[in-house]
Design goal:
Blueprint: H1 8-17, H2 27-34, E1 48-56, E2 59-66, H3 70-85, E3 90-93, E4 98-106, H4 112-129, H5 131-135, E5 139-148, E6 151-159, H6 166-180, E7 186-195, E8 201-208, H7 216-231, H8 233-253, H9 258-269, E9 279-284, E10 287-295, H10 309-318, H11 324-347, H12 351-365, H13 371-384, H14 389-400
Antiparallel strand pairs: 1-2, 3-8, 4-6, 4-7, 5-6, 8-10, 9-10
Bound molecules: (R)-mevalonate.
(R)-mevalonate (MEV) binds near residues 242, 245, 342 and 351.
Length: about 400
Amino acid sequence: MKFYQLKPEQRREILQSEGINLEDIDDQVLNRLDKLSENVVGQLRLPLGVVQNFLLNGQSYMVPMAVEEPSVVAAANHGAHIFARNGGVKATSKRTGIYGQIVLKVNHDFSLPDLKKKFPDLIDLANKEFASLIRHGGGTRSIEAERKGDLVYLKVLVDPAEAMGANKTNSILEFLAAKLKQFPGIEEKLFAILSNYPSQLTKATVTLDPKTMGGRKVAERVALLSKIGYEDPYRAVTNNKGIMNGVDAVLIATGNDYRAIESATAVLASQDGHYRSLSKWTMQDGKLVGELTLPMAIGVVGGSIKARKDVQQSFAILGKEINSAKLAEIIVSVGLANNLAALLAISTVGIQAGHMKLQARNIVSELDASDEEKKKVLAQIIKQKDYSESYAQAVLKQIREGK
Ligand code: MEV
């Protein structure tokens, strides 16, 4: 039997026989995970943190974030706190659809104008074939075409309703490609697959009174850092990493495809041929105004979302009213909150102070010590601002020697 055909327990036995130490795992959990992925031998878990009060479009949300870096959740909470002091963040999402691509090889019998005349019929056919998508409020919306030599590029826009829509879009594209084969002059379909090109654009904006965030000088510094991020790609990419810290953490917590968002985001950041910050902070009438637009091909149903209990708990945290538009708005707004917190840290005490305080917990958790001892070590290393493992060990030794 091939490795992928084995039961997960059998795969684990093979790895263990090679001397690999695997974490214990409940049989039921293992078998459930085996249905979600391939060659499964275990699971990887992440801490699930929350932003407690995220004020967005006048509504307060508790937002789940799955990430192993403590400063990310702390930064989101810090940004969210400042947003809330200023009436919250406003966001809008355009759930117009995601793109699919069909590329065809054509010969001299092919006529693009004739093909274009067929598009309304093709859209109708697709919407009849995929009627359940229509019932959910989605559907195939448009087809555009362009010829480049003997290749024709079709761009199909599919509204996936409440889902991310990758599977459904791929099925629709295959269906359309099969119909197109009958058209004169089309020799072959080269491929028919969704495109991760930016779509489902979601924008978050916030207007902050400098008094709520350290004063005018700090606000002006944030705006200056933002300008640097617009001009300098070395800074832009780091700025954008800070945004993706928050974005990815919510995407992962809600079982969404963060790879798709990451790749689409990179396109958006370099849309004028120069890689730039995705966010923009400017001083306007004495206020600091922040804005961020991101492609949010996400969903609240579909994929493995329903099948994953860990993801379902995130949706329970978000509350019953959540839909894909609201989730997209939350995600982009959290990205903006993380971005603000990072810019504030950089423009004031520097990032390392906050980071190291949080990393101190990781260092202390590694100590072979009681909870009480760990508490004392943590307090001491934070006091001394020495976050090295050797210092933590030395403090533990002193505590044990009663010094
Ligand atoms: C660290 O994870 C993210 C930051 O570097 C982002 C930034 O510099 O804007 C703090």
